[in-house]
Design a protein that fits this description.
669 residues, alpha+beta, 16 helices, globular, disordered N terminus
């Protein structure tokens, strides 16, 4: 009996100490390929039906961090996937798979799926697709590749868990973004604007993961749109966030760290453009150069934090999570700003949504930013009614001063966009992570963080906002920004009280955590989002069953000799890339002669390669043409190289087989 009492007292005395140890956590990191179909599918982001894929500039990846509190065995998974948005249906299925295949302690509150928000990735993975401006198509293959890639990334990170020191650091990112909606920002009170040095948040906050004194990766949060790659691009690209990850992982690989994972998460990018000229261009000579420059600037900032190592996080893991029906959520008087209870609205796109962001290339010619209820046009309303339906007067009043174009939340039998949305608040030691499915503007994020800080106070040292997480539901603007009806206000789906509703809810979630009220795998939600999995109609991928003979021809060979920095181009015959999707690891290889053999030194995942596929004409017997491109750099070694295309073709006997076309050998000096 005495021994039992002694052991109990010893355990109670040592638990707090253990929780404060630098290695109070286990952590692992991983990444998996989630590249979408290379051709024929509309890209998600710019809402242009004519922007369909014809090849790859860089591949898409899901990068995962899994943390375990060694004291309580609570788990936390954070993923950034290089897609435009991640719907809740993906999160729901990912969590279900993790609970059955990996660990039952995963749940909706501790699995965060963040989208990098690249605008150059294929769509087709949203269940809300019947009436959608981002894509009206649903492709089962695309959906499964994204879902399963995320699951596998988390699973592998979980399996790699080791005692880890989590260190937090931050720095200022220089010249990587500019406020694209300055007139809206300036509508915020001058007294509030004077509290901040800049009209965007330039701070990057980074969580470094050290195992046995060695960094295995990191996740950072910095808000900027991945829109250097503009709407006239038709190559899959992870844009500036992806470039930053590639540069970080290659830098680590130089030091022998092949498993290093660099997560550049999306944060409060709502009104932040990477196109520094504010005319859909800059700072580079073309879209790919601009993407590289902005990515490199994020990379350099992250390296500064990584090299400084940072401050070790102490404490454990805590989670708050709730679903909110944003179509009619009450906002109490202390948050509404009107002295009385107000309500959010069923979702609606405004005229200003159709105008697009002028600084990012704009939208439809009938619209311009700043169009409010006073600027309604009868012919536009008539066209919108014909395309969908007219909004109710109640919705117009609720959404005022927005000129309602499409009443997405009023369609029957179900709304055309999700109305019940997921939100959360996570504590990793002294780091607080706010979880929202929105694109949040700079001042909106500042107000949200202020609410959380007012409750958690010295319990946290740092706070970040993880936007576009666990679902996608437009923008969040301040009421003052909303009143200007720039693009961001026109795309604030649930009306002028949206931000105030979220201030109220994050204040509530922070209060729950202070009181020890947490979301667990046993928690039940009163409301949950609709499950539309039985209502979607999957389509076959374009050109995925095109029959051909085996591609063998080099149609336009490259040259024999190139100087470093030159572009190498070779054109070959090819089967549709979708025939082999998703079982082709790389459609393009750069190989270097190494003794008597050949070594792969580049793939289509590298930012200095790209391929473009041209579908066959009527007389081409199913064979298309593929242009292989390598932008050589001054730093590559001299030697003999060749470009190689690999793929899968479907024969007339309906058999799928691998094939390979080698371009002529060339010298680089």
């Amino acid at each position: 009996m005495k021994l039992r009492i002694f052991l109990t007292l010893f355990l109670l005395m040592t638990l707090p100490t253990f929780a404060d140890e630098p290695n109070a956590f286990l952590a692992g990191m991983s990444k998996k390929d989630i590249t979408g179909p290379p051709i024929g599918v509309m890209f998600w982001g710019y809402a242009r039906e004519d922007q369909t894929g014809v090849g790859i500039q860089t591949r898409q990846y899901a990068r995962a961090l899994v943390i375990e509190d060694r004291l309580t065995h609570k788990l936390f998974a954070y993923v950034t996937a290089e897609v435009g948005g991640i719907p809740f249906e993906i999160q729901r299925e990912v969590v279900a798979k993790l609970q059955t295949e990996v660990d039952a302690n995963f749940h909706l509150g501790n699995v965060l799926l963040n989208a990098s928000h690249t605008h150059s990735g294929p769509a087709g993975h949203f269940h809300y697709s019947e009436v959608s401006f981002y894509s009206t198509q649903f492709y089962k293959d695309t959906y499964q590749v994204l879902r399963d890639g995320i699951v596998e990334a988390i699973k592998e990170a979980y399996q790699k868990r080791k005692p880890a020191d989590l260190k937090i650091g931050k720095t200022i990112v220089k010249d990587a973004g500019v406020n694209r909606s300055l007139s809206a920002y300036m509508a915020n009170p001058e007294s509030e604007r004077k509290l901040y040095a800049d009209n965007i948040d330039k701070e990057m906050v980074q969580l470094n993961v050290f195992v046995e004194g060695k960094s295995v990766g990191f996740v950072n949060w910095y808000g900027v749109h991945p829109t250097n790659i503009t709407f006239d691009n038709r190559l899959i690209s992870s844009d500036n966030k992806g470039i930053a990850s590639i540069l970080s992982e290659k830098e680590a690989e130089k030091n022998g760290d092949k498993g290093f994972v660099a997560i550049f998460a999306q944060a409060n990018e709502g009104d932040v453009s990477p196109n520094l000229n504010l005319n859909n261009t800059g700072p580079g000579k073309d879209i790919y150069d601009s993407s590289f420059i902005i990515g490199q600037r994020q990379f350099l900032a992250s390296q500064e934090i990584l090299n400084a190592k940072g401050k070790s996080l102490k404490g454990g893991l805590s989670f708050s999570h709730r679903f909110i029906d944003m179509s009619q959520h009450p906002v109490r008087s202390e948050f509404s700003g009107t002295g009385k209870t107000e309500y959010t609205c069923p979702s609606a796109y405004g005229y200003a949504f159709a105008a697009g962001s002028t600084e990012e290339g704009g939208g439809h010619f009938l619209f311009h930013e700043g169009m409010t209820e006073k600027n309604r046009r009868f012919y536009i309303d008539w066209i919108a009614k014909f395309m969908l339906q007219s909004p109710s007067e109640k919705l117009r009043e609720c959404q005022n001063p927005k000129a309602v174009l499409f009443p997405m939340g009023e369609t029957k039998p179900i709304p055309s966009l999700p109305q019940i949305l997921p939100y959360g608040l996570v504590l990793v030691g002294e780091l607080s992570i706010m979880v929202l499915p929105h694109e949040v503007t700079t001042m909106s994020s500042r107000r949200l963080k202020k609410e959380v800080k007012s409750v958690l106070k010295d319990k946290i040292s740092d706070i970040v906002l993880s936007g576009l997480t666990n679902d996608f539901s437009g923008y969040i603007t301040t009421p003052e920004e909303y009143s200007t009806q720039n693009y961001e206000g026109g795309h604030t789906l649930h009306g002028q009280q949206s931000l105030n509703a979220l201030r109220q809810e994050f204040f509530g979630m922070a209060s729950d955590l202070i009181q020890g009220i947490e979301f667990t795998n046993a928690s039940k939600s009163e409301i949950t989002p609709l499950d539309l999995s039985g209502k979607v109609h999957p389509l076959k991928l374009p050109e995925s069953d095109t029959v051909t003979t085996e591609p063998k021809q080099v149609l336009k060979p490259n040259g024999n000799l190139y100087q470093k920095g030159n572009q190498v181009v070779c054109k070959v015959s090819a089967a549709s890339p979708n025939v082999g999707y998703p079982n082709v690891n790389s459609y393009l290889w750069v190989e270097k002669k190494n003794g008597s053999g050949w070594e792969k030194v580049r793939s289509d995942s590298d930012f200095d390669t790209k391929f473009t596929y041209q579908s066959p004409g009527f007389f081409d017997k199913g064979l298309g043409k593929m242009e292989l491109v390598w932008e050589t750099s001054p730093s590559i070694p001299n030697g003999e190289y060749r470009l190689v295309h690999e793929g899968i073709y479907l024969s007339p006997t309906e058999k799928k087989s691998n094939y390979r076309v080698e371009c002529p050998v060339f010298q680089v000096q």
